[in-house]
Amino acid sequence: MKRLFFLSALFALVCCSSPKSDMDRYVDDLMSRMTLDQKIGQLNLHSSPGFISAERVTEEDENTKMLREGMLGGIYGGSNTAVLKRAQEIAVEAGAGIPLIFGMDVIHGHETVFPIPLAMSTSWNIDKIERAARIAASEASAAGINWVFSPMVDICRDARWGRIAEGAGEDPYLGGEIAKAFVRGYQGTDGVFDTDEVMACVKHYALYGAAEGGRDYNSVFLSRQEAMNGYMVPYREAALAGAGSYMSSFNEFEGIPATMNKWLMDDVLRKMWGFDGFIVSDATAVVEEVAHGIGDLQEVSARSLQAGLDMDMNSDGFVGTLKQSLKEGRIKEADIDRACRRILEAKYKLGLFEDPFRYLDEGRRTERVFTLENRAFARELAGECQVLLKNDGVLPLKPGTRVAVVGPLADNASAMMGTWTTSSRRDETVTVRKGLAERTQTLYAEGSWLFRDKETEESVRYGMMKVFRPDFQAPGVHEVPQAVLIAEAVAKAMLSDVVIACVGEIAEMNGEGASRSDVSIPDAQVELLRALKATGKPVVMVLFTGRPLVLVDEDRDMNAILDVMALGTEGGRAIADVLFGDVNPSAKLTNSYPRSVGQLPLYYNHKNTGRPHGEYDAYKKFVSCYIDEVNGPLYPFGYGLSYTSFDYSAPRLSSSSVAMKGSVDVTVTVTNTGSRDGDETVQLYIHDVYATSTRPVKELRAFRKVHIPAGQSADVTFTLTADDLKYYNHELEYVCEPGDFEVMTGPNSRDVQTVLLTVK
Known about the structure:
33% of the residues lie in helices and 17% in strands. With 760 residues, it is an alpha/beta fold.
């Protein structure tokens, strides 16, 4: 351990002036003693042995060999503290003695799992989202992780894309507020990493959510102006909040893969927004640039480094080719030094040079992970992440109600977890069946297959295993006939007062590599719903999903629809809390829900055409509309019902005009006209009436979640300044232009009232 002691002593010696100069001096000295191979080694990131994140799976002996040679800067995907500690011991004893950084996909919790990010965003509760990230950081850091691949801030307007489940929906302003909350929760706010804080890695940079056709890894076709206004805001806000790292995305933009796109990484992220951390590629993204048709591995590695990429994840392109590119003059040693410095600075900020083992404390894991306190908060947060889409009065359920809990997702712990839960305690997850059984008399039936087609169901359930284990034999599906399952569910329904039908998507239908061309409830489950409706019993559909679905028939036929998405560890109890009225639902959608897949991509903040058409108007020739469908969504952005009702006044301005350097207050009175206390998210939108570039019909610019007792009113006031009215113009200048603005307030993006504001 002599090298470790030397580094620790050196660290203490240089810590005598300002933190920034200390870091510069320390890194300067360290790099002066590093060989070229050691510098390149810091740019190399491997997965933990056996971790599956791409077609390439690292073997243990391969990692160990590279560690001993000082050719790894970090490892990701593992959370076994003993294994990580051993890897760190090898790293600090080898080469330049530089500690590893340990990363992991901590997307919505570590062992205590919170709602998937899309569900979390429907709470519109920024404080609680930040607290969830704080708990996730505490748990992950207790397992030895100091770097998390989160938040995912990709804006998505197309429900076909599976990774929509990992983001905050379609709106850039809301996405930016949530991005900042995640960064603060993971990293803290004082710029110093304590041992219960981790470095955030903002992903996927950039524009990944705009993949053409909603097909994962696909090309992106946007103008720079639309990219900056419609998609880039959350990336910007995360940078301004101090995020320590970014992850490049798989897609191309303007004909250049994002992982080698200098305009994205250097011109915008670093120069325009001032980001000073490091950028890592997504898994094997560097070698995948070869398939884009850019060049061989040596060429794409050199171009990625020059464009601003600092760390190569699982491609071995940097360690395998950069020395040769340097010899051939394709790159300069300064390019390697620049990237190496950024990696070393991240490790310095995390305190790893002072103590490489500061995150590797087995005792902390026992004390801080999956605690009763963490699980209680998971239940509380999940209670705010359930969107009531329809209710004819059947909800809330009365005490003593006999409930039939049916459907293939009613007792499915994996579906409750959602995508990206590699470290979760699945066996201790509370399903809907369990959560309701703790509250009332229940009968259970599986009810149906997932899909009518057996091959489709096998592929969905076991697709990952089939890819990475060619000899894998899928367990039997469809062993019980569909008719038998439905008959059992109908029989249980007839013995009950209310049917709770748990249907939708299992976890494997969301996330990476899970695009769908048909975003409706699968056919076998639709058969179940029809049979349950035919019983005449009230049917409450509890919808599991990671994306907006087409629900036109369900909206017509079901007595109530509760969209729970995937709520995590305590989801079953949280669903029971809402169904029985202990929690009054307050969640609101962060994506527009389409009436048909042909409307996609669908988003509220679209632009007008020269021949506009009302969103819900009937077909008319020679205007922008469909023959066979209205333009508007089934459920608009910002929509969500409650067990009470709210009435909105028209918005009132403190002044009808405002100077560029002034401010104006916008006040709306919201009255709880029902019989229950409730929480309401009041939303404010703007529309720039005339601008030098076309602007959306409305844009969210503020929101506030308020608690209003039954029968009482609350005045909600928002203060607007010119900064709130800015956009990127055609020259990509961030400006507020004088003129008239429509200011709108309401409970969702559709049902708003308007007042006119003039900016002078």
